[in-house]
C-alpha cells in the first residue's frame, strides 16, 4: 500500500508538472505555428530562437538581476526586431511579388533557415561555451495536501495561456489579425482589399519570433540549469510535434498539443525513464498523421 500511494503521488505531481510544462511548450510552439501558418515558412532555426530567449533571460539576470518573468517582455521585443530583420534580410527576397507560396519558395526558405540554425548554434557555442548555466529563481511554492507546486511554474503557465489568448484575439478580432489571416489564405485577394503583403508578412514573422523568445525565457524557470547552446535541438522537434498535433495555423491547437506532450513526458518518465518518455511523446505523431493529419482540433 505504501508503494502504491507513492506511485499515485508521483503520478499526480507528474500530471500537474506536465500541465505547467505543457503550457510553456504551447507558447514556444505558437511561434512556429505563426510563421508556418502565415508565411508558410518551415523555420528550421526555431529551436535556436528558444535558446537565444533562454540566454537572453540568463544574461539579463546575471548583469541586471532581472528574474525570468521580467526578462520575457525584453526577450519578446528583441525577438520582434530579430523577426523583422530576418524577414527583410532573408525571406523578403524570395516571397516578394509572389501571388502564392510555391513549393520552390518553401524549399528556399527551409534551406535558408537551416543555414541560419547552424550559424546561430555554432556561434553560440563559441560565444557561450558548451557549459550548462541557469537562473537561480525561486518564487516559493504552494502546498495542496501532500503536493508542493512551485509558484514559478504556475506563473509562467498562466502567462503562457494569457499570451496565447491575446494572440487568438489579435488574429480574430483586429484589423491586423484579419489582414494576416487573409494574407495566409489568398495573397491576390488580400492585395485587392488594400492589404500590404510585405508589411503583413514581416509583422507576422516578427510576432512569431517574439513569442518564441519569450517562451525561451519562461523555460528557464522550469529547467534552472538547462541553458546551453544546443538546447534548440530538443525544443525544435517538440514544437513541430505540437503544431502537427494541434493543427497548423490553429492557436488553441498549440495549447492542446503542448498539454498533451507535457503530460505524456512528465507522467511517462515516472514509469519509463526520461529518454523513453520523450520517444513515446514523439511517436504520437504517427497515429495523428494516419488518422487526423489535419490535427486533433480539426
Automatic annotation (TrEMBL):
InterPro entries named in the record: ABC_transp_permease, BCAA_transport_permease
GO BP term, example: amino acid transport
GO molecular function: transmembrane transporter activity
Entry keyword Disulfide bond: no
Cellular component GO terms held in the UniProt record: plasma membrane
Domain of life assignment: Bacteria
Keyword vocabulary terms for this entry: Amino-acid transport, Cell membrane, Membrane, Transmembrane, Transmembrane helix, Transport
Cellular localisation: Cell membrane
Pfam (any one): BPD_transp_2
Residues passing through the membrane, by range: 12-37, 49-70, 76-95, 107-128, 148-171, 192-215, 227-245, 276-292
Family stated for the protein in its record: Belongs to the binding-protein-dependent transport system permease family. LivHM subfamily.
Record-given protein name: Branched-chain amino acid ABC transporter permease
Amino acid at each position: 500500500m505504501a508503494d502504491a500511494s507513492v506511485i499515485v503521488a508521483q503520478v499526480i505531481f507528474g500530471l500537474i508538472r506536465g500541465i505547467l510544462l505543457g503550457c510553456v511548450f504551447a507558447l514556444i510552439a505558437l511561434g512556429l505555428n505563426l510563421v508556418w501558418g502565415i508565411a508558410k515558412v518551415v523555420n528550421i532555426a526555431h529551436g535556436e530562437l528558444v535558446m537565444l530567449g533562454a540566454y537572453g533571460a540568463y544574461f539579463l539576470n546575471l548583469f541586471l538581476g532581472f528574474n525570468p518573468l521580467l526578462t520575457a517582455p525584453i526577450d519578446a521585443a528583441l525577438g520582434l526586431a530579430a523577426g523583422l530583420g530576418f524577414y527583410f534580410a532573408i525571406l523578403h527576397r524570395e516571397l516578394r511579388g509572389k501571388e502564392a507560396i510555391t513549393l520552390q519558395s518553401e524549399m528556399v526558405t527551409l534551406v535558408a533557415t537551416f543555414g541560419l540554425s547552424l550559424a546561430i548554434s555554432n556561434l553560440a557555442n563559441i560565444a557561450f561555451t558548451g557549459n550548462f548555466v541557469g537562473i537561480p529563481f525561486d518564487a516559493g511554492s504552494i502546498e495542496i495536501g501532500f503536493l508542493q507546486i512551485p509558484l514559478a511554474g504556475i506563473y509562467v503557465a498562466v502567462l503562457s495561456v494569457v499570451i496565447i489568448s491575446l494572440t487568438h484575439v489579435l488574429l480574430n478580432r483586429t484589423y491586423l489579425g484579419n489582414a494576416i489571416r487573409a494574407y495566409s489564405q489568398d495573397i491576390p485577394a488580400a492585395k485587392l482589399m488594400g492589404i500590404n503583403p510585405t508589411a503583413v508578412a514581416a509583422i507576422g514573422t516578427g510576432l512569431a519570433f517574439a513569442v518564441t523568445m519569450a517562451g525561451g525565457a519562461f523555460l528557464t524557470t522550469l529547467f534552472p540549469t538547462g541553458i546551453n547552446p544546443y538546447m534548440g535541438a530538443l525544443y525544435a522537434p517538440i514544437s513541430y510535434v505540437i503544431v502537427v498535433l494541434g493543427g497548423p495555423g490553429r492557436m488553441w491547437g498549440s495549447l492542446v498539443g503542448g498539454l498533451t506532450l507535457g503530460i505524456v513526458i512528465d507522467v511517462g518518465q515516472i514509469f519509463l525513464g526520461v529518454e523513453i518518455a520523450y520517444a513515446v511523446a514523439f511517436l504520437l505523431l504517427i497515429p495523428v498523421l494516419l488518422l487526423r493529419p489535419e490535427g486533433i482540433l480539426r
